Amino acid sequence: MIRPAVSDDVPSILRLIRELAEYERSLHEVKATEEQVHESLFGAEPRVFAHVAEHEGAVVGFAMWFLSYSTWEGVHGIYLEDLFVSPDVRGHGYGKALLLELARIADERGYARVEWAVLNWNTPAIGFYESLGARPQDQWTTYRLTGDALTKAARG
Length: 156
Hints:
Layout: E1 2-4, H1 10-23, H2 34-42, E2 49-55, E3 58-70, E4 75-85, H3 94-109, E5 114-116, H4 123-131, H5 147-154
Parallel strand pairs: 4-5
Antiparallel strand pairs: 1-2, 2-3, 3-4
């Protein structure tokens, strides 16, 4: 079952975030707390959204996303920050169902796209995405300001 996340899902979502980070060899970088995830999803002005996959009553996957905007298209899109399904239930279609739910939302709302980033070494994910018709945007390189560089830039 795929459904929008509810407040009670926050501990499960944070557990899955940690599982994802471990899979991506970056568990040591996870700083998010339950309180932060709860505020982001369910606070006074939520700007991030989540859908979850349930298997036998337990949350086993999630898609965390937010709105993007295309100046060329003149409409919003969905940026998929994270998509993860616990390894022990992969192959049951939960990842596909989560991604297709975001596509359905985008189509229903008139959004131009659903987009995301994938690690270059994650060939199982790349194959999965391409099987759904997604294509890499090879003319673009993602840049990021973070940490000390962000602080330095912000302070001039």
